[in-house]
Design brief:
Domain Type IX secretion system protein PorV: 19-259
Radius of gyration: 22 Å
Helix content: 10-25%
Number of helices: 6
Organism: Flagellimonas aurea
Distance between the termini: 57 Å
Order of helices and strands: HHHEEEEEEEEEEEEEEHHHEEEEE
Pfam family, one: PorV
Protein name: Type IX secretion system outer membrane channel protein PorV
Largest sheet: 14 strands, antiparallel, barrel
Keywords: Signal
């Protein structure tokens, strides 16, 4: 019963943020696609579009797979969600990649978000009906080096959201959608500076480009979390044993901003209907200039993050990061710490989040971990 109360409260909070005129937060369907699913990225402030390659690049930038050092690899991660309130809500993630040759690679990924077991009943004396709502995404990608320092990737994704509850009138059905990703990654050759060597990195990823999600035939349509990621990074290579990577990343949802279409001073049902009628294609372009308060509000819709990773002999890693989102657009602000340990072909990563916002973070005080393996012949990238 407590689980049901938690979900009701989450719905109320989400509805309040949508209706508040002074806080035009953008909400989408399947927000689990935007959760950092691996401990390495979450240890650096939820970033990964321009960091160095790892097995979890499928979520952040699949173009990085073309720079993989080994023939193939797998990654498995587990993220508890709302751990301080319930114990059976979590995000599971699995990835597999395989290099076809030195120039190209393909990868597959699966993300599963389970909301645990919920009891539903009409009266307190009624025998409960047990339901297990869940969402998942299955995706694949192909990456190709266009030059020794630049690669691009395309990906496809099937999304299923099974959040409807069966009742006596209508059976529950999952809402499904398809989406695509387009990504690019740049990694320079090693450059000799006066006191150290260095390497530049940059990346972009336009993810979840696709139609809306609809739970009921003829009902309200919900935008997918179409997102633009841009990032840059630099590796300070002090010697073969000590490397310090500095990274920064910017994110913007390519989704229209909720607004007052008829100018009556409030967002009404009619405004929401008109908002839902915007096609995803038009919404992507409108998202760059549709904020009611102009350019200043558009900037508030951009989140940013800073992160660092120190690697010693590619066997021990320390990480830290900071993520920032405007108070009017969600107010996610947090510091993260992380560590990684590698032995032969296996690596385990851990991360921890400290919220600095007045709004409670669902992942606050949560320990996340990931496990990855690489196999086969080694590829030597310049």
């Amino acid at each position: 019963m407590r689980k049901l109360l938690v979900l009701v409260l989450l719905v109320i909070v989400g509805a309040t943020s949508m209706s508040a005129q002074q806080e035009r937060a953008i909400t989408t369907a399947v927000p689990f696609l935007t959760i950092a699913a691996d401990a390495r990225a979450s240890g650096m402030g939820d970033m990964g579009v321009a960091t160095s390659f790892d097995a979890y690049s499928q979520q952040w930038n699949p173009a990085k797979y073309a720079f993989a050092n080994k023939k193939s690899g797998v990654g498995i991660s587990y993220t508890p969600y709302l751990e301080t309130i319930v114990n059976d809500v979590s995000l599971l993630n699995a990835n597999y990649y395989n290099k076809l040759n030195d120039q190209s690679a393909f990868a597959f990924g699966l993300r599963y978000f389970g909301l645990g077991e919920i009891e539903l009943r009409q009266t307190i004396d009624q025998d409960p009906t047990l339901v297990k709502p869940n969402e998942f995404a299955l995706d694949g990608s192909y990456s190709l080096k266009l030059s020794p320092t630049f690669s691009m990737a395309v990906g496809g994704r099937f999304i299923s959201s099974n959040l409807r509850f069966q009742d006596g009138v209508q059976d529950s059905q999952a809402a499904n959608a398809f989406a695509v990703d387009v990504a690019g990654f740049y990694r320079s050759r090693e450059i000799a500076y006066s006191n150290y060597d260095g390497r530049w990195r940059a990346g972009f990823n336009i993810s979840n480009l696709g139609g809306s999600l609809q739970y009921d035939e003829g009902g309200q349509e919900n935008f997918l979390p179409t997102n633009l990621k841009l990032g840059v990074g630099f590796d300070f290579i002090f010697d073969q044993d000590n490397i310090l990577a500095i990274n920064t990343e910017f994110n913007k949802l390519l989704v229209p901003t909720p607004r007052d279409f008829n100018g009556d001073g409030q967002i009404t049902t009619e405004d929401n209907d008109e908002y839902q009628n915007i096609s995803f294609f038009n919404g992507v372009f409108e998202s760059f200039g549709d904020a009611p308060d102009g350019f200043s509000e558009e900037l508030k819709e951009v989140t940013w993050a800073l992160g660092a990773e120190y690697r010693f002999r590619e066997a021990f890693m320390l990480r830290s990061g900071y993520f920032n989102e405007s108070e009017e657009k969600g107010s996610r602000k947090f510091f993260t710490l992380g560590a990684g340990f590698k032995f032969k072909s296996a690596q385990i990563d851990l991360s921890y989040l400290f919220s600095t916002s007045q709004v409670r973070n669902p992942l606050e005080n949560t320990l996340r971990f990931s496990l990855s393996f690489d196999f086969g012949e080694e590829f030597f990238n310049d």
